[in-house]
Amino acid sequence: MSDDAKVSTPQRTDDEDRQAWLRGVAADMARLDRSSSAERAADVLRRSITEGALRPGAQLSEIELTEVLQVSRNTLREAFRLLTHEGLLVYKLHRGVFVPELDERDVVDLFRLRRVLEVDVVRGLSERDPELPASRLEPLHADVESARAAALAGTWPAVGTANMGFHRHLIGLADSPRLDAITSRLLAELRLLFHVMATPRELHEPYIARNQAILELLEAREYEDAADDLHRYLVDSEKGLLAAFKAR
Amino acid sequence: MSDDAKVSTPQRTDDEDRQAWLRGVAADMARLDRSSSAERAADVLRRSITEGALRPGAQLSEIELTEVLQVSRNTLREAFRLLTHEGLLVYKLHRGVFVPELDERDVVDLFRLRRVLEVDVVRGLSERDPELPASRLEPLHADVESARAAALAGTWPAVGTANMGFHRHLIGLADSPRLDAITSRLLAELRLLFHVMATPRELHEPYIARNQAILELLEAREYEDAADDLHRYLVDSEKGLLAAFKAR
DNA sequence: CTTGCAGGATTGTTGAACAATCTCTACTCT
DNA sequence: AGAGTAGAGATTGTTCAACAATCCTGCAAG
Hints:
The structure is a homodimer.
Chain A: H1 11-32, H2 36-50, E1 59-60, H3 62-69, H4 73-86, E2 90-92, E3 96-98, H5 104-125, H6 138-153, H7 156-172, H8 177-194, H9 201-219, H10 223-246
Antiparallel strand pairs in A: 1-3, 2-3
Chain B binds a DNA duplex through residues 33, 35-38, 61-63, 71-75, 77-78, 93-96.
């Protein structure tokens, strides 16, 4: 860690800045030289699925998509694999790939995991409070803000996106790459579930304020209260989705 | 198993049996027609990695493996993708696939998740105790038994396998497919970590008895005590691995 | 109404080919 | 001599065309 800083600026900050910059550049590079074709195709498909253009249950034809996406069948199948791992597609042997159709049991399973993981992250924050700068909460503020803006504009899917970003960033506070990966998959599946709703307003609107309340508790370092709030939040959200299923 | 009994047996049980049988048949079918080539190649590689024939850091050459496994490059790459998703391989763009080298941070990350998930499963058992037949604990007994047998034979890697099976089956009690998938990946990565030990005896032996103790608490329906034991178990196991890293 | 059987369509797999990138060696220049 | 550089060789990324295996559809027969 320590270095041969010969200048008179505080070495710690200087070094930390450099480290942060190095990480940033590395991340940018990794983002740029992605496996080009396969990941680019996966990006397009991912958006089509999460935005609802491809409904749950829909089949994705290989030959059709090779023409649309301008990639070979092999590359397309690699993109399929990527999305399969994210839970956005399922393979049926010799029958093709489909957008998964989730049901009530999946809702229960999904929220069971969300509760365990998210609540534990928030509870665990109290133990590493000192090393957690306030700037780490910045992305959460941005999510609440954009959720509120989207609500004003009436674009409820965007509200859902922002709310999901809030929880993704909340999980990110734990600095656990494996937890981040798991969360990414869970939220992708949650997206699929949202499509059971005709009008997603009552599915997203109530949670804007509740996210903000949790965020304020985090700022006040009331981690236990925040965890309790979050738990109730997830229970209610699950109830809402299950109700939407029954009313469907 | 069940039959289309027109006799006077209670219909409910009859129907439930039929349902169970249908699920069993479906599972068997799904297990049989696996994606043949790609999954078969992945099976071979998976065993090579988990059994240590391919050490962490080793590179897997494509042309070499196409000859050994008798599959085409495209199919081999699909097998690589499968194992990448399990955490047993990592891709480095334009450089190839490698067996990952995990370090202390991975140990901490991994065990953090194991503690949260496994402990929560055990705690949650108390709420669904009535619907949990004693036969569900049968696989756990088998794991303890085979661990003990392997210890007598001195085959410590087999002890590790049995111990991991115990925890996999423990998680399985939650009946959560997503949790099962996550666990499968975590345990695969744990396997990679075991290879840092020259002599794996002290890494596995102490935990045979501790698994049995936990199992006995489960049978006695002392779920809180079992959860506490499990928590300590995982803390100690993490310590042992970290110590092995430092002594390496 | 169910069962069995073509025929057509789709997926699974292969092999070869070319482009892009990395690694290593050997060379040049100071 | 040592550092930097250019290029050859090897490996990976991607595409294409073809064939084998499997699934789905519709129709005929019982």
